[in-house]
Amino acid sequence: MEGYSKMVQSVRAVFRSGRTKEVEWRRNQLLAMLKMLDENRDRFSDALKADLNKSKMEGLLFEVDYSRNDLINCLNNLDEWTKPEKVKKGLVNLMDKVYIRREPFGVALIMGAWNYPIQLTLCPMIGAIASGNCVVLKPSEIAAQTAVLLEEIVPKYLDNEAIKVVNGAIPETTALLKERWDYIFYTGNSMVGKIVMRAAAEHLTPVTLELGGKSPVFIDDGVDLGVVANRLMWGKCTNAGQTCIAPDYIMCTKKTQDELVEKIKKTLGDFYPDGPAKSPDYCRLVSDRHYQRVKKNLEGGGTVALGGDSNDAERFIAPTVLVDVKFSDPVMQDEIFGPVLPIVPVQNEDEAIEHINDGTNPLALYIFSNNTATRNKIIEQTSTGGVCVNDVFMHGSLPSLPFGGVGSSGMGAYHGKFSFDTFSHKRSCMERELKMESVNNLRYPPFTEKKQQRIGWISKKKLNSTGGIRPLLPYFVFGTVVAILIKLYMKYYM
Ligand code: NAD
């Protein structure tokens, strides 16, 4: 198949023209994206319905309005974020201009996944554009209707010389990955994550990898299981469990397990009064391959306590709870990414911590507990991309928290200002004057004992043993007075 070299060359030429670095260009593109979201709400909803049977409310909440809010937050802060950042100076640099410039990398490749095909493409793109990059967007071919819609409307609203959408499957993605990119932002499974990172290594291209994994839930004894069941099943049933931070499995005592099943039964009755199969609010599995993969989990260990039914023609799998599951059972080996919820009975939080640390780093960790000591112990003794206590998903909704994995669940993070920072090179800048050579002479040869002592006095850091800045205060006051005097001298006599 034909490669993408010409396209990448043309986009890089736009970047080199400097147009995308202008803050006005960035603002105009973001405003155009806002218009695109507002004028196509129904078309987005229809595409999500066709791809995943996503209800209108779920599509708006998790995709269109989610992206819209991220976009508005970005527009509201763009001036602030794009300003050079002043940094602390030492005595040696009191007369210098020292700052960090956040600069675009160049041409960014953004590869989205199918489960939230709007949010996972547009939110990274907001960060990339805000920081002045050109973008080539590769939506997932598996959410086919949404991919076609993005390919049609993005060029209508945005600068189509600087921002391109490429649709296609593995051959197209493989060809794209052969090109030299200045940044690659990938969302999807870890197997492809390794392919992406290998391709990036070829050109030493920096990457963000937003991957997945089995996100555990620990439920302490003594919590209000009615509330827990509502919050938990909201997270597990959203998008029929096809969410990277969906609660994957539960660890709790046997006693809590048995009570929880009753509460989940009530919750599911409240969520879907006529059953999930008839509910307009319950999604379907995205493809036959994913349907067959998730269906195998219905017999992946333990006993089916709730749900268990499926419909091949519709790719429907009911919310299903498996009880008395063992860590060694097949359902506990890989990320489920579907509406099957195994419960593994454990003795206490220590056993849960040990199991979490035996595996790879999860993307999210959920703890339901009224006990602060238990919560702190689990948080302190584990490492996960994010953690949310007494709820699910909500930590991913706050733009002031970074969203990303650690270890096998990914590298890098985004959302809010973190998206802007992800797509920005932090360039360290120091501007000096060709003056004060008598002080600078100290660092030039020939080296003498006297020079060494003076340099040491000016530049040596002191360990702040008593805390605070107090011990350095005399130096700071002295330095400031000297700097002011020199400035005044230069102003009036030079
Ligand atoms: P997917 O199949 O849509 O793949 C993602 C991208 O990789 C697509 O653009 C696709 O074209 C490309 N791709 C697929 N196979 C390829 C290959 N062999 N070579 C090159 N490119 C290829 O999505 P998926 O991987 O099924 O997504 C589900 C996974 O993603 C889950 O593990 C989930 O946890 C994770 N995920 C993570 C996040 C996050 O934010 N961390 C969000 C959503 C999904």
Protein architecture, described:
With 494 residues, this protein is an alpha/beta fold. It has three domains: 4-211 and 417-426, Aldehyde Dehydrogenase, Chain A, domain 1 (3-Layer(aba) Sandwich), CATH 3.40.605.10; 216-403, 3-Layer(aba) Sandwich (Aldehyde Dehydrogenase, Chain A, domain 2), CATH 3.40.309.10; 439-493, no CATH class. Helices cover 44% and strands 16% of the residues. The protein is built from 17 helices and 18 strands. The protein has a seven-stranded mixed β-sheet, with helices on both faces. A six-stranded mixed β-sheet has the order 5-4-3-6-7-17, with helices on both faces. The protein starts with a helix and ends with a helix. Nicotinamide-adenine-dinucleotide binds next to helix 7 and helix 8.
What class do helices, strands and sheet pairing give? alpha/beta
Q: Mean pLDDT, as a whole number?
A: 95
**How far apart are the first and last residues' alpha carbons, in Å?**
67 Å
Helix content: 40-55%
Strand content: 15-25%
CATH fold naming of the largest domain = Aldehyde Dehydrogenase, Chain A, domain 1
Q: Could you tell me the number of beta strands?
A: 18
Q: Note poorly predicted spans.
A: none
Radius of gyration over alpha carbons?
Answer: 27 Å
In the sheet with the most strands, the strands line up as 10-13-14-9-8-15-16
CATH superfamily annotation of the largest domain: Aldehyde Dehydrogenase, Chain A, domain 1
Question: How does CATH name the architecture of the largest domain?
Answer: 3-Layer(aba) Sandwich
Number of domains: 3
Number of helices: 17
Major beta sheet summary = 7 strands, mixed
